Amino acid sequence: MLSVYSPPHLREDGERLAAKHPELSGYLFATSGTTGSPKWILHRREGLDICAETVNTHFHCTASDTWGLALPEFHVGGFCLTHRARQAGGQLARFEQKWDATSFSLWVRENKVTITSLVPTQVFDLVKEKQTAPPKLRLALIGGEHLNNTLHAKAIALGWPLVTSYGMTETAGLIAASKVGDTHLRPLPGWVLAKGQEGQLTIAGPGLFAGYLAESGLTETEIPFSTKDLVDFKDGLLEVRGRCDDQIKIRGELVDLHNLRAGLAELIPSRRTTVIALPEERCGYQLFPVIEGPQAFDQEISHWNNQLPAFSRCQSAVFLTDWPKTPLGKIDFRALTEQISRRQDYLLRKATSRD
């Protein structure tokens, strides 16, 4: 029998898929990353147990710890935190109110939480509200997406014991992590990480997922599993340089969206930012900086943009108050791209009608 873990809007699809495959057992997770259509990922119980034990051993988690859940349990990050707590025999506290940085910080103090998992959006909010870390908290595992260095440094200055991590639904959470306070990713014991021929990360290990499940059946995992993340290894450390699908060509030149987004985030650390690429007939793509909140930073953005190679320079920045987000709080790049595309279509039609 399959246990289904998915956002509410995909729950019915997951239950229907599970019912169609009564011969399978395990845990079925929905994932779409940040861009694609949902995929259904099957994990076996024994693999999840190994992943939980590996993390607990690495971070010396014991029955004396209290885990604080502030992520949806249908997401692999939330599920894995609860599973680690069960494996270690520790206490589990659930932050069940609507996310608010001040309320969360107070809740962590009141519940004497020692370990929690957060995404960068939540770290951003904690820093913005200048919340200092509760004294009992010894680990704040950060995953879901990249945490920029400026935000990391500000959170550390407020006392938050951040551990940056790397993982995905296919690996049941983190497979590489930093030490508290730094950002250098070290592979966890039991995982074999390597650089493939095209520069992408390949993964092998007993905690790897069993396969992708579809109506037609289970596509079993090929080992080693090849990801879309581009990586380097130096002195035993893992460096994630972006994704294969972050590499686009403009006027025949290769442009790395990951680097552009990182540069913009460092330029404006006080706001959420990103860079969106829209298809364009002549050049291949047009690039749009997107910044949360009202219009500002015009001079800084212009200077940053002018320092870029000509082929990778951006169009006028787009300022948005309401960002589309996934249930985990990550930027929903597909929805955001569609929103920016509709905006540009409207502006083009408006300009054409005036002509």
- What is the name of the CATH architecture of the largest domain? 3-Layer(aba) Sandwich
CATH superfamily of the largest domain: ANL, N-terminal domain
Q: Could you name the ranges where pLDDT drops below 50 across 5 or more consecutive residues?
A: none
CATH topology of the largest domain: Rossmann fold
Overall morphology: globular
Question: Beta-strand percentage?
Answer: 25-35%
- N to C succession of SSEs: EHEEHEHEHEHEHEEEEEEEEEEEHEEHEH
Q: What is the arithmetic mean of pLDDT?
A: 91
Distance between the first and last residues' Cα: 63 Å
For the biggest β-sheet, the strand order reads 5-4-6-7-8-9-10
Count of runs of 4 or more consecutive helical residues: 9
Structure, described:
By secondary structure, the chain is an alpha/beta fold. It folds into 2 domains: 240 residues, ANL, N-terminal domain (Rossmann fold, 3-Layer(aba) Sandwich); 104 residues, GMP Synthetase, Chain A, domain 3. Helices cover 31% and strands 30% of the residues. It has 9 helices and 21 strands. A 7-stranded mixed beta sheet has the order 5-4-6-7-8-9-10, sandwiched between helices. The longest helix is centred in the C-terminal third of the chain and has 22 residues. The chain is globular and about 65 Å long. The model has no long low-confidence stretch (mean pLDDT 91).
